[in-house]
Specification:
Elements (H helix, E strand, L loop, with lengths): L31 H4 L5 H18 L5 E5 L35 H6 L4 H31 L10 E4 L5 H11 L4 E6 L16 E4 L2 H11 E6 L4 H15 L8 E5 L1 H7 L2 H6 L12 E3 L2 H25 L15 H5 L8
Parallel strand pairs: 1-2, 1-5, 2-3, 3-4, 5-6, 6-7
Helix pairs in contact: 4-5, 4-10
């Protein structure tokens, strides 16, 4: 069909064909260009709240014990019996050769630089912390699996990467417990460690949403030696506890007193009046897995006693955690809307 178009009021005309039929526009929630745009940022933030909540409910997770610590050192038995320093937190790439710890043979032959020899000594220390985190996570998980109730208690949670995070997930995995990894998408390559329960393996874009899930379910925190990220996460939770923004008591164990007292003087905060002396009671130091476990068990037992009193008052009780996933809203209430074909 031809159309007559008037241009500038003249009688000139031009012919134009009818347009081809349009394809259906993408649904808004399937429009990748929109979903990845600044305009949809709020939707992405909400997704990092609701999607983990759905999975935690399905897996019947009630609360967690969070492990923080360095991601940069690999365990002695993981790195082909060699100590290895990673390039960055969360990276899978080793640091340059001149920044690696010296090997035991190099140290013995006197061929290591002073810097590499110091790193070798530190690497041995950090590999010990890996094994301690692994042992402690196993102790906590084995104990937690004996607790009654219809939800999983005190599930070991880490940042999902290598190093101390891997050690925590590994210790829980080795005793048959579920274990959570809250990973973060970074500009360099990084992968979740293999010991995370697959249905509880998360990756976040937003640091603040990842921190929310660290804090929201945590009933205890264990802080192993680490760097900027570990200190950031530790002080975030200590500040929430100090300012009473947590509607619960949280047991905080700072593991490795010699390391932490050499890198930061926590008592100086109180001596200078920056915090109250009472704030130093928000955490306890531990130097062995058994010592840390006893501190955690004591704090978590108080939590269990408070909860038992609440359940008796409200006549709530359970007979163990079901193996089937918890139902979602639609399974409980029936279909809410027809599915899109």
């Amino acid at each position: 069909m031809l159309q007559r178009l008037s241009v500038g009021g003249d009688e000139d005309t031009m012919a134009r064909k009818d347009p081809e039929p349009l394809a259906a526009a993408p649904l808004a929630y399937e429009n990748a260009e929109f979903l990845n745009s600044p305009d949809a940022r709020m939707l992405r933030i909400m997704a990092e709240y609701y999607e983990p909540m759905m999975r935690f409910r399905r897996e019947r997770i009630q609360d967690t014990v969070v492990f923080f610590g360095s991601a940069r050192f690999r365990a002695l038995d993981v790195a082909s019996h060699e100590l290895e320093l990673l390039a960055n937190t969360g990276s899978t790439t080793p640091a340059p050769a001149d920044q690696q710890p010296a090997s035991p043979d190099e140290v013995r032959r006197g061929e290591a630089s002073e810097q590499r020899q110091r790193l070798a000594e530190a690497a041995v220390e950090m590999s010990r912390y890996y094994e301690d985190a692994r042992a402690l996570a196993g102790l906590v998980s084995r104990w937690a699996m004996t607790l009654p109730g219809r939800r999983r208690r005190y599930v070991i949670t880490s940042g999902g990467g290598p190093g101390i995070m891997e050690a925590a997930n590994r210790g829980a995995y080795e005793v048959g417990a579920r274990t959570i990894g809250l990973n973060i998408k970074l500009p360099f390559e990084q992968m979740p460690n293999p010991y995370i329960t697959p249905d509880l393996n998360f990756e976040f874009h937003y640091f603040f949403m990842r921190k929310f899930w660290f804090a929201y379910l945590a009933k205890a925190l264990v802080v192993f030696p680490g760097g900027f990220g570990t200190m950031d996460e530790m002080f975030e939770l200590l500040t929430l506890a100090q300012t009473q923004k947590l509607d619960k008591d949280i047991t905080v164990v700072i593991y490795g007193s010699s390391y932490w007292k050499s890198v930061i003087n926590l008592e100086a905060f109180a001596e200078k009046g920056a915090i109250a002396w009472k704030d130093l009671e928000l955490f306890q130091f531990a130097d062995t897995p058994q010592q840390a476990f006893e501190i955690l068990k004591a704090g978590l037992t108080v939590d269990l006693e408070h909860e038992a009193a609440f359940e008796r008052e409200h006549a709530l009780q359970g007979d163990g955690v079901p193996e089937t996933p918890a139902p979602n809203a639609q399974e409980l209430l029936g279909p809410d809307i027809a599915k899109t074909r």
